[in-house]
């Protein structure tokens, strides 16, 4: 039952004060809390075990506590335990309380006493008491394995009982319902008719009883009961096979035995299923690192495997480990990002040639830098200022690109490590921390590098690329034609300039003195800018490839080992520690497996004896108590 396997149980249900606790008391031969209103507020599992000694042993078990008690104190002990579980008020709880009664001569029975049902909450009871109680009752009587012991007071009309209504909901034909009629002494009239006509579908039959009244001892109560059914003018007419506590005990024992025999094959199967499931689960639990050697092996294994994976996906473009996961096809994704970056650079520096601004900036700058000197020297500052403006425009893009790239790499590395660390959670946090530190360092280096690259373009201008002179010369070849159009006002004001497309030139007609120089400068900047952009993209790509190689092939392994094994880190010992929750789970699994194995043996034993003996009733419940 601890492992959630339903065993055949006898569940006692009945309306409030119908006499449930009294019936249990009579069966167990001990006193239980009795009274008006609700006094059973939690499920009470009562396990009766016949034993040889004359000494009565009583033991209360709840919430993993075991309390030895005595006949005199058991009532109080139950009340204290109930208050501990369900509070001091009138509230109720699902958490059961187990009372083990070892007493000479008691029937070997396990029964569950439940809170009685009431439609109307009495003073101090929660409003939804009916729902609460009927939920508990339903939980216990729904399983097909449960035998329902329906306690009915002789003083009431049976069909009006709530407990009858409830048990009929789960057991229509009544095949697993037995009725006990209490208080026969108080309402003898018509009792014979009530139990013989069976208006309420009780499949397992009725037993009429008279429980202990007031301060009677158990023995007195049995004598009085026997006398009552022997000599009472009406009650004596009821067949002796359906009256008295001893008859009830005998019936219950038989029913329980038959029910156990019927359920055994299913129980065996459930034990096996549960056992297999737990063994599987245990074998899939994270590895426990028992020695320094184990820990070293694990560390080598993880770092080696993670490095291989990262090498494949980040450097070599082999993604067979992640065939479906597009994110992990890293070389392709990084190429995408680089491509986007270069597109952004180009589009950010593209200009509008039809707005009437063509050459205006250049002319303004030339005017401002005019000095006393010959007019056909192009001032170098003008070129540099124009270049700086262009660099300024795109300066953030390389940084944004690098930040995005590193957060992607961090993501990928995190995924890979998490995958390889799944079996070693005790190494996880330190490993992840080490790589995060490393990645943060690499990112910082990249940022510095990128800033330097941008700075360089800002203050220096050089290329050894022969394309520069070639392209400049080919753009300049258009100058004379352009000047002709500008000087001749009758020409159209749109000019088709190779490398720019349609250019608006009308506004340049008044400024013709500066146009030639301005055009020259613009062509130099334009040609040079293409080289700058290409150089930026190339350098960033080279830097990235270099950083990744360094990280994967060298830094990562060192960083992780330093983080895990460094002297101030607790070294290898810490790797041996398992998290308490994991250790707890492992222990629970082991305990549960042990218990299930034992249960399996016990049940197998019973099954053997059944098949050997043929007649199993008596053997069965003896074995059950041993079990
Ligand atoms: P529960 O609420 O169903 O557990 O009912 P209890 O066992 O606490 O009984 C309620 C009351 O009915 C108590 O005062 C008992 O003494 C009384 N009672 C139970 N059975 C009998 C019986 O057979 N005869 C008489 N006269 N009273 C009984
Ligand atoms: Mg009770």
Automatic annotation (TrEMBL):
SUPFAM superfamilies assigned to the protein according to its UniProt record, in alphabetical order: P-loop containing nucleoside triphosphate hydrolases
Provenance organism: Cinnamomum micranthum f. kanehirae
InterPro entries registered for this protein in UniProt: Dynamin, Dynamin_GTPase, Dynamin_N, Dynamin_stalk, G_DYNAMIN_dom, GED, GED_dom, P-loop_NTPase
Lineage: Eukaryota, Viridiplantae, Streptophyta, Embryophyta, Tracheophyta
UniProt GO cellular component terms: cytoplasm; membrane; microtubule
One Pfam short name: Dynamin_N
Keywords: GTP-binding, Nucleotide-binding
GED domain location: 518-611
Name of the protein in question: Dynamin-related protein 4C
GO molecular function, one term: GTPase activity
């Amino acid at each position: 039952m601890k492992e959630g396997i339903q065993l055949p149980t006898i569940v006692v249900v009945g309306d409030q004060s119908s006499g449930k606790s009294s019936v249990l008391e009579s069966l167990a031969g001990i006193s239980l809390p009795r009274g008006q209103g609700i006094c059973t507020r939690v499920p009470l599992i009562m396990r009766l075990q016949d034993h040889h000694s004359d000494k009565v042993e009583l033991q209360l078990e709840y919430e993993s506590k075991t309390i030895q008690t005595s006949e005199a104190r058991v009532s109080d002990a139950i009340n204290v335990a109930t208050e501990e579980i369900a509070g001091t008020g009138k509230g109720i709880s699902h958490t059961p309380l187990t009372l083990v009664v070892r007493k000479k001569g008691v029937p070997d029975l396990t029964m569950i006493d439940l809170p009685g049902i009431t439609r109307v909450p009495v003073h101090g009871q929660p409003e939804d008491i009916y729902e609460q109680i009927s939920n508990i009752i339903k939980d216990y009587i729904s399983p097909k394995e449960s035998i329902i012991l329906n306690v009915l007071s002789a003083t009431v009309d049976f069909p009006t009982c709530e407990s009858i209504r409830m048990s009929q909901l789960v057991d229509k034909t009544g095949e697993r319902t037995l009725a006990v009629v209490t208080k026969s002494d108080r309402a003898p009239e018509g009792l014979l008719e009530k139990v013989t006509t069976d208006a309420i579908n009780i499949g397992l039959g009725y037993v009429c009883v008279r429980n202990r009244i007031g301060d009677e001892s158990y023995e007195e109560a049995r004598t009085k009961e026997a006398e009552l059914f022997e000599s009472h003018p009406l009650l004596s007419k009821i067949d002796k096979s359906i009256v008295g506590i001893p008859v009830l005990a005998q019936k219950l024992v038989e029913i329980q035995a038959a029910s156990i025999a019927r359920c055994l094959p299913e129980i065996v199967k459930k034990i096996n299923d549960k056992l297999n499931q737990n063994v599987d689960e245990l074998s899939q639990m994270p590895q426990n690192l028992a020695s320094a050697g184990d820990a070293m092996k694990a560390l080598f294994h993880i770092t080696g495997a993670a490095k291989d994976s990262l090498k494949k996906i980040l450097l070599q473009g082999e993604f067979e480990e992640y065939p479906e996961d597009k994110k992990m096809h890293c070389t392709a994704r990084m190429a995408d990002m680089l491509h986007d970056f270069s597109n952004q650079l180009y589009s950010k520096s593209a200009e509008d040639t039809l707005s009437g601004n063509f050459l205006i900036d250049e002319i303004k700058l030339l005017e401002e830098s005019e000095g006393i000197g010959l007019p056909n020297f192009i001032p170098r500052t003008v070129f540099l200022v124009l270049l700086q403006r262009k660099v300024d425009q795109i300066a953030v893009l390389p940084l944004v690109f690098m930040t995005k790239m590193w957060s992607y790499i961090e993501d990928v590395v995190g995924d890979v490590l998490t995958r390889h660390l799944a079996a070693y959670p005790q190494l996880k946090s330190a490993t992840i921390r080490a790589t995060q530190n490393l990645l943060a360092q690499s990112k910082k280096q990249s940022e510095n590098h990128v800033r330097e690259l941008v700075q360089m373009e800002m203050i220096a201008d050089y290329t050894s690329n022969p394309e520069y002179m070639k392209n400049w010369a080919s753009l300049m070849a258009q100058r004379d034609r352009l000047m002709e159009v500008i000087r001749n006002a009758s020409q159209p004001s749109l000019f088709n300039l190779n490398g720019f497309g349609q250019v608006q030139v009308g506004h340049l007609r008044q400024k013709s003195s500066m146009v030639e120089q301005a055009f020259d400068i613009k062509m130099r900047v334009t040609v040079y800018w293409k080289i700058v952009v290409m150089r930026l993209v190339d350098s960033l790509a080279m830097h990235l490839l270099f950083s990744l190689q360094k990280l994967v092939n060298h830094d990562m392994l060192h960083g992780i080992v330093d983080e895990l094994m460094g002297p101030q880190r607790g070294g290898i010992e810490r790797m041996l520690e398992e998290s308490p929750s994991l250790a707890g789970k492992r222990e629970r699994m082991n305990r549960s497996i042990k218990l299930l194995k034992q249960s399996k043996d016990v049940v197998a034993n019973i099954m053997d004896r059944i098949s050997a003996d043929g007649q199993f009733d008596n053997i069965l419940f003896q074995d059950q108590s041993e079990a």
